[in-house]
Amino acid sequence: MTAKERFLSNAYSVKTDEETRALYDRWAEVYDEELTENSYRQPARCAEALRILCDPQDCEVLDVGCGSGLSGLALRATGFDFVDGCDFSPGMLAKAEQSGHYRRLFATNLNEPPMDVEDASYDAATCVGVFSFGHVSPDALDDILRVVKPGGALVIGLNDHFYQEGSLTRKLAALENAGKLSVKSSEHGEHIPGTGLSGWVISAQKAG
Length: 208
What we know:
- The protein is of the alpha/beta class and 208 residues long.
- The chain has a single domain (12-206), classed as Vaccinia Virus protein VP39 (Rossmann fold).
- It has eight helices and seven strands, in the order αααβαβαββαβααββ.
- The protein has helices spanning 17-27, 31-37, 42-53, 70-77, 90-99, 141-146, 160-165, 167-177; strands at residues 60-64, 82-87, 104-107, 122-128, 148-159, 181-192, 197-206.
- It has a seven-stranded mixed β-sheet, with helices on both faces.
- The longest helix has 12 residues, at 42-53.
- The protein is globular.
């Protein structure tokens, strides 16, 4: 791999868990550089959305699908000091460990629940760029909600293409209809402006 190798254009072409992990393991070394080059906005947008729902000084957060730590960086910059992270890619977890933004990191396959986390362990969970084609199924929300405390916050950032595909919004609607969460806001805005891609930040609260 050379320093100029780039992977962003391949991110939405993976179809299996194995392909996804292999891509992100290879991408890990240049992930931050490539996303920064393209003005990745979702981590900061999601951190600000969480700040509205959860006092940063008294909020333990699980950064689900933390990747290399860009979302952890945004959370820490917004005042969240108690941030744990999980990811499927060992390469990304190694970069996240180097970032120093996390209290604890662990590996998990969100498509094969449950996570090795006790029920109601966190005040909030963030999922930044987690739900997408060939990545994590919206059904993973069941296990993500399991580890959030009653009344806790959930913030999801996703790109326009997967939002329009509809499976995530249908899952959220089903959870809302079942009385398991309440969607507080859905905000459209910048996702990765350098690629011309917009996205959504969805804020929700777990039922108390």
